[in-house]
Amino acid sequence: MYGFEGWGGGYFRVGASGHVVVTPRGHRDPSASIDLHDVVEGLSERGLHTPVLIRFTDVLESRMRDLKDAFDKAIRDESYEGSYACVYPIKVNQQRQFVEELRERASSLGFGLEAGSKPELMAVLALTAGVEDMPIVCNGFKDDEYIETVILAHKLGRHITPVVESFAELDLILKHAAEYGVRPRIGVRMKPSLPGAGRWAESGGERSKFGLHAPELLLALEKLDAAGMSDCLRLVHFHVGSQMCDIGQIKNTVNELARVYCELRRLGATGLDTIDIGGGLGVDYDGSNSTWASSVNYTLDEYALDVVYRVRAACDDEKQPHPNIISESGRALSAHSSVLVFDVVGRTRFSRDPDVAWIDRIIASEEGAGIEVPQPIDDLRHAWETIRDTVSIEDKRALDAYHDALQAREESRTLFNLGYLSLPLRAVSDRLYWAIGRKVLALTEGIEDGGLPDQIDGLAEQLSDICFCNFSLFQSLPDSWAIEQIFPIAPIHRLDEKPTRRAILADITCDSDGQINRFGCTDQRMYKPTLEVHEAEEEGDGDGRPYRIGIFLVGAYQEVLGDLHNLFGDTHAVHVSLDEQAGWSIDDVVEGDTVREVLGYVQYDADAMRRAIRKEAEKAVRAGEMTVAQSRNLLRFYEQGLEGYTYLEE
Questions:
Q1: Which helix (H) or strand (E) is 587 found in, with range?
Q2: Strand spans (E) along 418-557
Q3: Cα dist. 328→22, 233, 278, 507 in Å?
Q4: What is the DSSP letter of 92?
Q5: What stretches of 578-626 show up as alpha helix (H) in DSSP?
Q6: Is pLDDT of 539 > 50?
Q7: Fewer Cβ close by (within 10 Å): the C or N end of the chain?
Q8: What average pLDDT does range 196-215 have in this prediction?
Q9: Sign of the dihedral defined by the CA atoms of residues 122, 128, 130, 133, in that order
Q10: CB-based contact 276:328 (threshold 8 Å)
Q11: Which residues does residue 236 pair with via DSSP β-bridges, in sequence order?
């Protein structure tokens, strides 16, 4: 139902207990597992309540090894003479604890880091202290100071490559190289002739933001040759776009890049030894294995083999040496490693039972007040009495009754807007329509969407619950709101029970956009409008336990893009790893923002605010509006609130 086998990548499944089970080592060791619900309970016992972001460091390492293994296998199978390395673009998740975990594992794999701005360069230089041979690639627009820093980093022994994004940058590189007596490794990005595929297709192609056109590339080579530094050109770079969903587009662009590499060497760039194929390696967020924007139609092994084969074929044709291959696969490395877990704190729902006794009481009360009950109300009652005892949607009476209910409800709304229907009778109309609609949905349960009558299209969405969840969409899942990215979402427990409700998820921000109403779907539609959820008490599952939902594959971009809408800050972030004895252990805890901290981000002085409230409380005491004890309670609540979590707390 929730598609774990499709999008889980071997890292997430449903256990016998009905809990989500994490297998951090993936296919290498599927028996080594962690009960996600057990982790959340353990964190709660330690005072770390939801919402909480859980980073599984073993998943991160497994993804890195999977990528390395896929390329190593392709290199062996194709008798390829170059090597492979991934440089992680820290823009995907710049959180220090996360990048440090990645760096520790990158060193043994020969992986490196990518910086796309001056602040990121400063971070990467510090992160690579002591591992000077770790590859560093510098992308993005560069000013004089940026490039001077890169040139000086060569003197520190860093294996660093500035990529020329615009022609002016080459002049700055040559200037500072001469000034400091450095012969740097230089890269150059060329604009591909073909656009990418998927949601970010426009970021590639001839109109892409970065890189040189073919004429500029030749001029750059001439300039290097004139400076006696043509051998310093070591890397050629392409970027085809993020989250490439179609392997066909990847093949075409890699083939073009390989041809550019061969031509540059033929034209005198004899030091050129590396191809950087950029990012683009996608993640199957919905499990459909398709060319939808939230999916991919290829595997990791297929991706690696196609890249290696295309480069080898081009080089063999042109009698050029096989270059080393670099990719900037940030999303593919980090997405699976993080899960956001939150509680459902309340629900709005549409009842299946119209409560006939309540309806009779309302109608009698209105008639007693001299208010006439119009025909649409009688029609709705008759429709309910007709459909109540039907047992199949094949029964003609069921759809007839539903059609009558649709018409009667519309007439009731019109009468209300014209002043001919009272509010209590409007409530009766709504209650009857909801019950009829819920009965229709019950009759169609188990029928595939393609087999449903056209007349009830959209009814499940219209009558779905609204689950109010303790998180901020804008802080923790901005891509869902901004670009309608699909993420895998499922309860993390009770998965041995069949859900009986459908819902959309609403966050606790004061914003109507703060909801999720698009969920992954592996059939012929790109998404489904509701999520299957279990019947539950408003703040628990019937046993007093919170009803908990997880959003998976959120390790790429979501943390660094999150904002402070309604002043909801960062959630707690906890690093969890396998433990052979205890099952799992906490490696690190990054506590979420306090109210004081987020107020400081927007230039409020919390101490000044507290003093202002104290003065107001004293004024109220003097005026007799508040007792001393009450003022003390107010101040205590205010001070505790300033130091507390920005989300709802127990």
A1: strand 583-590
A2: 465-469, 489-491, 501-506, 515-516, 531-533, 547-552
A3: 26, 19, 5, 33
A4: G
A5: 595-601, 606-622
A6: no
A7: C
A8: 64
A9: negative
A10: yes
A11: 188, 275
CA-wise closest residue to 335 among 41, 64, 52, 31 = 64
Count Cβ atoms below 10 Å from residue 119 Cβ, excluding itself.
11
pLDDT at 522: 63
Structure tokens at 650: 């127990």
- Pairing relation of β-strands 501-506 and 531-533? antiparallel
pLDDT tens for each residue of 97-118: 999 999 999 999 999 999 999 9
Measured between alpha carbons, how far is residue 413 from residues 361, 385, 409, 430, 526 in Å?
Answer: 21, 21, 6, 9, 34
Residue 158 identity: R
Strand 465-469 relative to strand 501-506: parallel, antiparallel, unpaired? parallel
Which residue type sits at 164?
V
Torsions phi, psi for 276 (to 5 deg): -110, 110
Give residues with Cβ within 8 angstroms of 611, minimum separation 6. Answer: none
Beta bridge partners of 324: 274
Distance CA 629, CA 488 (A): 49
Sheet containing strand 12-14, strands side by side: 12-14, 20-22, 34-35
pLDDT score recorded for residue 203: 52
pTM: 0.92
Q: How many Cβ atoms from other residues are within 10 Å of residue 305's Cβ?
A: 19
Strand ranges (DSSP E) for 512-571?
515-516, 531-533, 547-552
> Which residue matches tokens 């043994």?
108
Is 464:503 a contact under the CB 8 Å cutoff?
Answer: yes
Domain-wise residue ranges, the chain:
81-335, 356-460, 596-643
DSSP for 274-321, written as a single string? EEE--S-B---SSS--SSSTT--SS-HHHHHHHHHHHHHHHHHHHT-P
Strand, coil or helix: 579: strand
Q: Which residues contact 71 (CB under 8 A, 6 or more apart)?
A: 84, 304, 307, 308, 325
Which class in CATH covers the domain with range 81-335?
alpha beta
Choose among 336, 335, 339, 341: nearest CA to 40. 341
Q: Which residues pair with 13 in a beta bridge?
A: 21
Q: Tell me phi and psi for residue 525, to 5 degrees.
A: -95, 155
CA pair distance 211, 191, nearest whole angstrom: 5
Question: What are all long-range contacts of 410-413, with beta carbons under 8 Å and residues at least 24 apart?
Answer: 411/374, 411/375, 411/376, 411/379, 412/374, 412/376, 412/377, 412/380
pLDDT of residue 521: 77
Q: Which tokens sit at 168?
A: 């002016």
The Cα 335–Cα 295 span in angstroms is 13
Give the CATH number of domain 356-460.
1.20.58.930
- In the chain, helix, strand, coil percent, each to 5? 45, 15, 40
- Quick check: 25 and 621 in contact, CB under 8 A? no
Q: For residues 436 and 455, what is the distance between their CA atoms, to the nearest angstrom?
A: 14
Over the stretch 168-198, which tens digit does the pLDDT of each residue have?
Answer: 999 999 999 999 999 999 999 998 876 655 5
Cβ 268 vs Cβ 218: under 8 Å: no
For 645, which DSSP code?
A: B
3-class SS of residue 497: coil
Q: How far lies 560's CA from each of 48, 61, 92, 557, in Å? A: 21, 21, 7, 6
